[in-house]
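Regression report. Comparing outputs from two consecutive submissions.

Submission 1:
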Amino acid sequence: MKIKNICCIGAGYVGGPTMAVIAMKCPHIKVTVVDLNADRIDSWNDENLENLPIYEPGLAEVIEQSRGRNLFFSTDVKSAIIESEMIFIAVNTPTKTYGEGKGMASDLKFVELCARQIAEVSTTDKIIVEKSTLPVRTAETIQTILTSNGNNVNFEVLSNPEFLAEGTAIHDLLNADRVLIGGNQSSRGQNAIQSLVDIYLNWLSPKHILTTNVWSSELSKLTANAFLAQRISSINAMSALCEATGADVDEVANAIGTDSRIGPKFLKASIGFGGSCFQKDILNLVYLCRHFNLPEVADYWEQVIILNDYQKHRFAKKIINKLFNTVSDKKIAMLGWAFKKDTNDSRESAAIYVSEYLIEDGAEVHVFDPKVSEKMIKMDMSYLWGQKGLNEAQISNKLSQIKVYNDPYKAVENSHAIAIITEWDEFRDYDWTTIYKKMYKPAFIFDGRGFLDKDKFNKIGFDFYSIGK
């Protein structure tokens, strides 16, 4: 099938950047990104590119090249579906907070709603592409819904998981080390696979495009994230031992990273991993293993999550212990809220859980992040406390212990300690001597990313703590 029109349902962190790159590299294809959230679509259409709903280096430039030419953002989902030959599903698949699989399984209600709407309005054959991270055999569910519509329309469902790292998503899309496409092994399925391959061939070489059956593709995404998160939790586990023994975790990581069998990537000790994928995907993997009666495998992968939670709580506890075993009524300045630098995504950020721990001990948490808004910071905390059963009055009372600033120097002024949560490059260049003078003494810094020069800060006068040292 020759693709002239693409529809992407979901204008979030996956759908927006992915479709922007496809539109830029395939000027002969009309790409329409649809979402029911009108405010989000308005942001994508805003003439001021600084107001895009997602911050990602290089994204604004890509949007500028294609928007209004062959890239469009709309709330008219029905028209975009009808017009397209290929539909990407890039909606949110959060961890379930209710019912069967609560706390582990993916909530597929948005995916199912997409499938039902596609089935309802389609009058011509469509290729459906799973872009959201989904459990194994979700394609089968989507196919069943689509083929039950009774409109005599043929649907082929492909799995095309994203392997983007936020902060480098545009680079990753333009220079992908692999694109994975899974589909049915029938002739019709192979034709659908080739249609998607042909799109990526507009800028990638054939050797970077892998094709599999649809089940292998779905599982490969979960497996890739599980393996990466496992490496992070492994080095973070060693960081605790390094602190206890006097070893330096960076030196240990460098030593083992030179082993060609191991390699250096994802061996940077930190406060823990966050983001929308790692924890969600591992929990999904754990649920699948238990569903298929593989308890030992489930327990193995669940330990990756347990260690990640331990690292965040260990960091917060270190702050409390160093501040004479209490932070009650003390001002803790938190630099960074995003789960990593070069993104405004704060989902599952360590900042959320460290803040909760400190607030429970009575601290005032004063936050600065160059890209995450006060509204989002307070939404993150409200959601966490709501999931724990707190009512609106209780949540409002706890939120009063969080202050958010647009100026980092205001955030740290008169603080008892500074916690570095996100490794924003600009933090290195602050006037730390001036900051030191305006803090209570002893002035503590807790580097949760291990990216600041300890000797420099000790020389200024700070009491400096870094993960794994």
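Submission 2:
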Amino acid sequence: MWRHVRNISILTVIALIGFGWYVTRPDVAQVPVEKLTGPTPEFGAAREEMIPTVKVAEADPWTAGEAPVPAPGLVVERFAEKLDHPRNLYVLPNGDVLVAETNAPPGHMGDDLTGKIAKWLMRKGGAKTPSANRITLLRDVDGDGKPEVRTALLEGLNSPFGMALVGDTLYVANTDAVLAFPYKEGDTKISAKGEEIFKLNAQLPNNHWTRNIIANEDSTKLYIAVGSNSNIGENGMDTEIGRAQVIELDLETRKGKTFTSGLRNPVGLAWDSKGMLWTTVNERDMLGSDLVPDYLTRVDETADYGWPWHYWRYIDFRVEPGKPEKRQYERRPDYALGPHGAPLGLAFADNAKLGGSFTDGAFIARHGSWNRSPAFGYDVIFVPFTNGRPIKQPINVLTGFLDKDGKAQGRPTMLAVAKDGALLLSDDVGNIIWRIRSK
């Protein structure tokens, strides 16, 4: 039998919390976050929660002149603002920047009372806005770090997220399918109807609705990151077909297969300088504020990371029936990113020109916790690499997203490297694209 919590649904729990009926003391972190970060995290005992810790940083967006705090030697500027919940970013070969203005599809949390209260909590955190369902194009004509052209390249989509250009075809991943659109360099508007080339499982309630995509070097395949429809399979494993994995899609045959499995919610996708694919993964909830660390890991063909039965090759005893026989064949992630920080954006430093310590490694945007005490994430970090592997503790790149009262002025979301080597960051609470460059 699959279960998440005994005799009480998670939405009901959230409803109780949302109305102030939560009287149980939330779980508080007991382990320094540094011990749960890096290539060899130190795991303690799980503290199963009947009622989840909920610590929502209320949204209080930036005012004019305010900005996050860059690391020494770096400068952060507003590239574009007054966007509508900007999420994923994609830089075209000519330097145009595509922004997916998007959010969860209707019915994402259900329409009953508990679903409505869950939406109220999301709204408090700045996450509940109707999806604009739009890909916006930004063009910096004169190279001054500000786009003079801003147009709606594509409209009428269905919670779009991933974007990838292959030849003269722009692929866009809606929550329920991958679409193909004709594109020629310099286009500022695509009027053609997209061709659906591959369906994706978006069965309601469709938790973890984002679908990121990336093409391989020879442009023959797309890799699609699809998160699970639940925390630990409590909605039934029949709803998880084609989910919690990275799918390899052959563009010629339009047939897909599981490439890597057991990934609860993979979001960021990026190739390193050695041609290896990496992803950021959001791990499971309700085992306490110290578990389970999210992670950065290489995406290897046939690798299995254990979801929902195991995490980091530890048994999740809440999942019944168990599958102990498969644990020895599962792979541990490469690098822990701390618990509940919600890492999303991922970009390698190969083409970035930030200099200093930011030359060999990966930039990661952590969207920030909602179910950990104290709050964690809400930053952009840099994970140093040596010989193609992540090492040591991360380096802060951009901080200051939470104000002195713990409110979220912004939430780091996705990353891309601009044609001039600056790092671009979407902020879906501030509705801003930040541009980070060296001084």
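Expected: both submissions complete independently.
Actual: both completed, but the second showed a warning that disappeared on reload.
Relevant detail on submission 2: The first strand starts at residue 37 and ends at 38.
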